[in-house]
Specification:
Shape of chain B: globular
CATH class of chain A: Mainly Beta
Radius of gyration of chain B: 12 Å
Low-confidence stretches of chain A: none
Shape of chain A: globular
Order of helices and strands of chain B: HHEEHEH
Largest sheet of chain A: 7 strands, mixed
Distance between the termini of chain A: 8 Å
Number of strands of chain B: 3
Distance between the termini of chain B: 32 Å
Radius of gyration of chain A: 15 Å
Helix content of chain A: under 10%
Oligomer: heterodimer
Number of domains of chain B: 1
Largest interface: A-B, 30 and 34 residues
Order of helices and strands of chain A: EEEEEEHEEEEEE
Number of helices of chain A: 1
Structural class of chain B: alpha+beta
Number of domains of chain A: 1
Number of strands of chain A: 12
CATH architecture of chain A: Beta Barrel
Strand content of chain B: 15-25%
Strand content of chain A: over 45%
Strand order of the largest sheet of chain B: 2-1-3
Largest sheet of chain B: 3 strands, antiparallel
Low-confidence stretches of chain B: none
Structural class of chain A: mainly beta
Helix content of chain B: 40-55%
CATH topology of chain A: Cathepsin D, subunit A, domain 1
């Protein structure tokens, strides 16, 4: 089983697990970095990424997600091509105009496809595909 | 698969990117920030005007210091 490894970014000596993800709808692949957030149920990108991918945001299924301050934000789910290194697959991901964090987020749904290890000793996040 | 240079460069330079570009999107090719904007589309358009191919541009939404404090 192939392992895909990414080094942590660091900020003020704290680990920041961000990785590059390829996204595609009908056209070319676009590479966007995302923060691996095991506390997020969904993978969520901001609505500006949907615009870049020429996705009609509100045509997707609307769900509401609770964020840190207890408020709800709307998320529109769309099926998108995803690529992590050379592993390509389709996944339903969310886009939100109210994503009030500084990152795009890779959530728990990516963990259905990979065993994800946060290895703080080597400062790497390791993806191991189940497929 | 050949790893892009940006895949090493962005994590290595993350802290300085936050200081310089926090709150914006940046486009990175190899080991260089080639464009900056408020949206990924704007960043890609600027990069294309500089002769870069869309697919070689790595897009990063750069958090601000305050946003990092909230996430971390």
């Amino acid at each position: 089983m192939r392992l895909i490894e990414f080094k942590y970014a660091l900020h003020r000596q704290r680990d920041v697990p961000i990785i590059p993800v390829g996204l595609r709808t009908s056209g070319k692949w676009k590479e966007v970095w995302a923060y691996i957030d095991s506390g997020s149920f969904y993978t969520i990108f901001d609505d500006k990424v949907a615009e870049m991918l020429e996705i009609n945001l509100t045509a997707g299924e609307k769900v509401l997600a609770v964020v840190g301050d207890g408020s709800f934000i709307p998320i529109y789910l769309h099926r998108v091509g995803i690529r992590i290194e050379d592993d390509e697959f389709d996944m339903r991901i969310g886009f939100s105009p109210k994503l009030g964090v500084g990152f795009n987020l890779l959530g728990m749904d990516i963990f259905d496809r990979y065993r994800v290890t946060f290895d703080n000793r080597t400062k790497k996040v390791i993806f191991e595909s189940y497929e | 698969m050949i790893m892009r240079k940006s895949q090493e460069w962005i994590p290595k330079n993350f802290e300085s990117l936050v200081l310089k570009y926090g709150g914006k999107y940046i486009g990175v090719v190899d080991e260089e920030v080639v464009s900056v904007g408020l949206t990924p589309r704007e960043v890609l358009e600027k990069a294309k005007r500089m002769g870069k191919e869309e697919e070689e541009v790595s897009l990063l939404k750069v958090p601000t210091e305050e946003e990092l404090t909230c996430v971390l």
